[in-house]
Amino acid sequence: MSETGETSEYYKQALEEYKEVQEDEDPDVWDTRISKTGCYVENLALQLCHAETGDWRQCFNEMALFRKCWEKNGNRERVSTVDVDGTTSKDSEKKK
Q: Which residues does UniProt call coiled coil?
């Protein structure tokens, strides 16, 4: 049976590592940048899953958690990307 969401082993491991990072008096630049997105745990859970499985297809639950967090925290507005049709993510949001 596949674990989902915040009960996945990767999420639990990422949460423990995040607690350690928060206690670090001198976090590295990467940890700081990811923390500012509000999705540090979800990002790390996705990375841990891929590192262990070597297959993104086995990380759909972690990917869904990360995407949900990313959108919930307004990170699409932080990063402008170009979609296949040539519009930016900001253009897509204006159409909604």
A: none
